[in-house]
Every structure is written in C-alpha cells, then in structure tokens.
Amino acid sequence: MTPEEAKKRIEQLTRELQRHNYNYYVLNNPVISDYEYDMMLKELEELEKKYPQFKLPDSPTQRVGADITKEFKTVKHKYPMLSLANTYSEGEVRDFLNRVEKAVGSPVEYVCELKYDGVAISLIYNNGILVQAVTRGDGIQGDDVTNNVKTIRTIPLRLLGDYKDELEVRGEIFMPREGFEKLNREREEIGEPPFANPRNAAAGSIKMQDPKEVAKRPLDNFMYYVPHDLPGVETHYQALQFIKKLGLKVSNNIALCKTEKEIFEFINDWDEGRKNLPFDIDGIVIKVNRIDIQKKLGYTAKNPRWAIAYKFKAERVETVLLSIEYQVGRTGAVTPVANLKPVLLAGTVVKRASLHNADIIAQLDVRIGDYVFVEKGGEIIPKIVGVNLEKRKPGAKPVKFIEYCPECGTKLVRKEGEAAYYCPNEDACPPQIKGKLEHFISRKAMNIESLGEGKIEILYDKGLVKDPADLYELTYDDLYGLEKVIPAGEGEKPRKISFREKTVKNILQGIENSKKVPFPRVLYALGIRYVGETVAKKLAYHFKSIDALKSASFEELVVVEDIGEKIAESVIKWFEKPSHIDMIERLRKHGVQLELKEEENVVSDVLEGKSFVVSGVFERHSRDEIKELIEKYGGKNVSSISSKTDYVLAGDKMGPVKKEKAEKLGIPIISEEEFEKMIGLA
Ligand code: IVH
Fold it and tell me: Which of 145, 302, 407, 590 has the fewest other C-beta atoms within 10 Å?
C-alpha cells in the first residue's frame, strides 16, 4: 500500500466507523455485525500505527483511551455554566409559572425534560470535531476532561452533516443502573469500596487520570442545552432537534407543554415512570421554550430565570438510631452500619442503614438515641440523611469512630487520601481470614461449592483452616461429626449444620476437584488486592506461572496490558510476605495449578467482552470444546439469548426458538467456520 493509498483508506475507515458508531450507540440500530466493526477498527489501528501522520483528529481509535493525564487543565467557560433553581414543592413550580407569565404578559410555552442525575459537561465542537470537554467546576471554570469524554461512545467525535461553526453543547454524563451494579460487583471482587450511587460512579469515572480506565466504565449521556444562538433556531425545542440532527444524543422523553396541567401531568407521570428507566433521574426540568423570551427573562447571579428544576422527593422516614456497628471486610476496611428502630420505607422494613465512613458520621453529627431521617434514593441500602435536632436528648454525645478493630483489637489505620479506616492485621483478624477463605472457594475462583453456606466458617472456628492451603490438608476424620447451630434470622428457624458422611465426602471431593482449576482462576482465588478476574487472566497469560509472576519487577508488571502502577505495587507487596510464599509452596505440593498448561498457552483477548450463546451440533469441535475456546480467547458463555448477547454460535440442528429470538433481536448468528476465523484458527 502506498502512503497515498493508506491515507485514503484511513479516511474511509474513520468515516465508516463513525457512521456505524452512531447507528449502534445513538440510534440503537446497527447495520453491521460487531465482528465486522471490530475488524475495521483493527485495520484502522494498524494503519494509524504505521502512518501516524495520517491519523485524523476524530479517529474512533481514540475511544480506547489516550495516555494518562497527570493533572486536568483548568479552562474558563466561554458561557458560564449555571445551575438551576431547585424546588421540591408544586407550589413553587406554580409561582415560577406565574412569575414568567406576568413578566411576559401572555401565555408561554414550556419544554419539560427529565433531570438526569449525573455530572454536567460542556462539549465544544470546532469545524465539526470534538475539541474540548469541560466539567462544570465552579460554573466559571472547570476541568478539561476531553480525553476521558472521548471514550464515551455515545458522544460523537465528529458531528454529522457539515456544520462548521463553533458549537457548544451542554448535557449530563451518567452511568446507567445496570452498568453501575456490575461495576460495583467488580469493585467488591477486588476489594475496592463500591460507589454509593450511579452519580458518584459517573463523577469518579470522569475524573480518573487514565482514559483507558474510563473507557471501561459504562458511561452514557444526554445533551440538553446550547448556550448560544444557532442559525434558524428560535426555540429551545428546535435547538434540541438541531443538535440531535448533528448526531448528539438527545432524549425523546421531552414534552412541549402549554398549560400548568400538562406540566404537572408530565411531572406525575415521571415520578412513577422513572422506576422503569434504565438510569436515575432526580426530577423534572421546566424550561421556557422561546429563546427570545428566555433572553428577556435573563439570569440571577446563579440561575436562569427561565427554567426551574422540580426535584422528586426521595421517600424519607424518621426513626431512632439504636447503635452503630462496625463491620470488617475481607480487605480489612471498616464500615460503620447504623442499627435502627425498624421502620417501613418504600414498602420494606428498614433496620439498618449505611453510614459509609467516619467523615460522614462527623458531617451528620449523629448521636446514639437520635431521631434520624432515613431515605431510599438511588442508593442500594438506605442512608441516614439528617438528624431531627428538636428531638435530641440532652447529654447525647457525638459518636467517636472506633480506634481499634472490633474483631481483633488491632489499632486501625487510615491511608492518606482514603476515607476508610483499615485493620492492618490481615493475617490474624478473623473476618479478614474468613473473607479470604470465602473468596478462595467462591464460584469464579476455585468453585468449591460443597464448602459454601457457612461451612468454611465452621472450619475456621474449629481451628482447622487458616489459609487456603490448609483446605488441602483436611482429612475425613477432621471433618466428620463437626456441627454448628446457626442462630435464627428474622422470621427464620435456627439451622443446624452437621458434617455427616455424605457432606464430608462432598467436601473432600470438591477440594480434590479444585486441583484441576486452571491457573488464571487460582491466581484470582488468592485474593491479591486489585487482582480481579480479568487482571488475573492478563497476568496469568503474560507470565504463565506463579514463579515468573513472583519474580517479576515493577517495570515488567506495568508493561502488561491493563496493569497499572497500583496493581503492580499490590502484586509485589503480596509476594514479599513469607507467609504467602509458604502458602504457595504448600498449594504446589498438593497439586494446585500454579502454571498454565501447554494447551492453555495459546490464548488471546480477541473475544474480550463478547458474550456467546452456543447452540446446535458442530462439525470440528464438540460443544464443550467450543465453549472452552470462547473462554480461552477472552469471551463469555451465556445460556440464553438476550439483547446483551453479542453472537449466537450456531451449529447444525440449532433450535428454531433460539434462531427466531436471535433474529428478532438482531443478534448475528455465526457458523463454526466464522468463529474459527474470529479467533484466527481458520
Ligand atoms: S439545563 C442554564 N436540563 O441539573 C441551564 N440541566 O442544577 C442549564 N441537569 O447543572 C441546565 N438534567 O447538571 C438542564 N434536562 C436538564 C438537566 C439538567 C440534569 C443538571 C445539570 C445542571 C443541574 C441543575
């Protein structure tokens, strides 16, 4: 290929990929398969690497994330980024409507929109290309987070059509609930504290230093405002249609309302309907539609006079704070939990509420015996949002966060920049040891199901196991006859667990079977901080054995894809502990897989993040072999077809129901041969 041809091909691929991106992410209507898309992207990446001089500023390859930003540049907003006046009262919405109409002197038309609960962002396009993305900051100046925002696939890097003037659009970046829950599960897996709600997760993501990490966060956006004039545009509604045509994501859940009645109908419909949205909203925004009227009404120092936000009331109740309990997790993080006098909230009885950390306790200034307000908002567990000071008993003392571990008495430590206190006694603090053992036997790790449901706790309490290697030294006689009564929970009977012959045999068999678990999962099972399932796979395939990983230097670790400084440091620290080295040697002695087997060696990540449903009979492989190949190449097997399935891999005699479902959902059905091509076997 001549440089001239390469330049042409780069341009062509950039354009085409952009079109497919828009079809896929904004219109939700892909016209090519993910596979075809990935192949085009790969071709573009290779060409750009060879001919960096031809890479276009809006290249879709930027979606995977640019280099680390050490510090965000502060940028002054060309138009200040104001916030909206908030109200929780219908009366105040009426006051707002009356004020506007009085000032205008005639009936006014409004646009009602959803109030997205995320982080505000300002996007600047020049010559049709996204050149800057800035956070709200203090409204006058914000942080330049362009490289992070470029990874969000629903934000176009180039506008559709040929709009060349400078365009500034404002909107919200948020994290849909499903992605948020998945992210939190992954964080808990690697011992990171979960985010309290999707808003915090979105805000945290957009401020990360590594755009490659941001690219992995499931962020989305809606645009809702243009702070300057647009050609031929007289109303806010038209402005939204204008930017929608340029490829920006604008919600369809917008209503033009002429009367107060219509506005309240919109509010009430969404107060109910928001439960069915895939993302959180915290209210409704009501905006004057005509831009000339907006200009006439003008601004106060902080807010436009032509718009108001009506915030939904989170369901809130008052109850008594009985006590605060401190829980110690697998990583030693100490979480304060409030025990409350049971109270009904949003249809469930609430007895406990999260207090997150010492700072929050101090901020709220809650005291034992206080009447506290409890809310269920976007959070998973209800939270205490305030104290009814009028009902505070005289002499109630401020809560002092514990200084010593409630489980082992070790003095707690707080790392710089972290909100949580930790118990540093990781080798002898019971919940930390039990937590690590539970993690070791869990399904995605060694999958020793027969030790689940509290059995591991019994073994620990009886002094039989302290670290995972002890499991492999258990005998029939150690286990037979063990018993424990589990106290009754609310509305339950007490349970007795006793180890009879069958249980003991199952346990021993489960432990024996775990010796076949492949090395990547063993590495994950060890519970090294920040080494979740994916990181464990990457490390295992790169270093191939625990010995090679153990002797890897910091520099050797950080060159591995997706391994950052934090992970590298954590791995090195883990191997510095003599007790860990001793445990590995004992695991080795018992035959646990501490290196990749020959056939596991040839793997790659080409199917990373893709989910497959395998159906039918195949010519060259058994169904199990196909499933194994999918996993080996980084993909995931799922049992039933849903909109989230990426491919259906169909052999002969695929069920007609599955076929119909895949077709209806537009999921590509691929053959054994196409699959082999994907992973480079054909
Ligand atoms: S309009 C000048 N529309 O709510 C008016 N804001 O305090 C600009 N928000 O900072 C804002 N959904 O982050 C507008 N449909 C919507 C919105 C919205 C959420 C956020 C935005 C703003 C805050 C208002």
Answer: 302
